[in-house]
Amino acid sequence: MQPSGSLLERDIQAGPSGLRLRLCEWGAGEHTTVILHGFLEQGAAWDAVARQLSGRVLAPDHRGHGLSEHVGRGGFYHFWDYVSDLDALLEAEAAGPVDLIGHSMGGTIACLFAATRPERVRRLVLVEGLGPPDMSSLRLAMARTSLEHQRSPPRHRGLASPEAAAERMRRYNPSLAEETALRLARRTTRQTVPDDPAVDPAHPGPWTWTWDPLHRARSPRAFEADTFGTFLEAIEAPTLVVDGARSRFRPSDGESRRERLRDAQHVEIPDAGHLIHHDAPDALAAVVIAHLGNP
Predict the structure, then answer these.
(1) DSSP alpha helices (H): ranges in the chain?
(2) Please, what are the domains in the chain?
(3) Which residues make Cβ contacts (< 8 Å) with residue 149, sequence separation at least 6?
């Protein structure tokens, strides 16, 4: 099969009463690969990798990210909401067993889905995606902070321009090409409006991010590694775990988490950090293609 084509975008509804999600799409064919992006990223960030994969490739902007709809007043963002959105996406797209790729937060979503819907996942790829550090010892502190954030939700600082947003992205990840950073920043910034509820009035600006500032609010639910481990053990799909050699975001118990997977291989990409799809997209695509094989 030939590699996928150029990026197309469209909106879908995540279930009969769900949110509007923006869907990035490449290529066509009977087999589907779904890519789940990480925290505060976007589906379009995977363009350089998705173009190299065969068949149809789908990458949604998660709820409250990129160009997807926000949960609105009184809403929140939990892992199982993202899992439900993925379930609705596959139903809407009539996708058979898919190959599922998850990066960072997207990897956690992919694990939860693959464990609870094993018949829907043919092969699994976790890119720096074995979950965050265990937070169970911070349950009480997180609950207290979460209540404060419910009372006073986080807001964005204003931005001078999309170019300033691109520069901020490159400060976070210097390996991100200037052209790529500007393309992604233009896609996920918008002009502010008077009394913009998403922008901190103490730090105004003519531009702001499109992603929901509520993502910066503390969750009341602590991530528990042992509970997550029970889902890892339930995954039936052959799994490839990919890490960046320079990454500083891997959990200290990453090896023991890998061991809880039934059928897993581990690959480390040299000269790459946490954002492997930006740092080394060709190397990442190569190991993904080798793992997925011919559906």
Answers:
(1) 47-50, 79-92, 105-116, 139-151, 162-172, 178-187, 225-234, 254-259, 276-279, 281-292
(2) 8-139+220-292 (3.40.50.1820), 154-216 (no CATH)
(3) 217, 218
CA distance 272 to 281: 10
Between the alpha carbon of residue 113 and those of residues 25, 42, 86, 158, the distances in Å are: 20, 19, 8, 36
Q: Which two tokens stand for residue 243?
A: 């890490």
Q: What is the pLDDT of residues 232-291, one digit of tens each?
A: 999 999 999 999 999 999 899 999 999 999 999 999 999 999 999 999 999 999 999 999
What is the pairing mode between strands 98-103 and 189-191?
unpaired
Rg (Cα) of the chain, in Å, rounded?
19
Per-residue DSSP letter, 118: G
The CA distance from 159 to 189, in Å, is 9
Q: What angle do CA 165, 177, 213 make, to 5 degrees?
A: 30
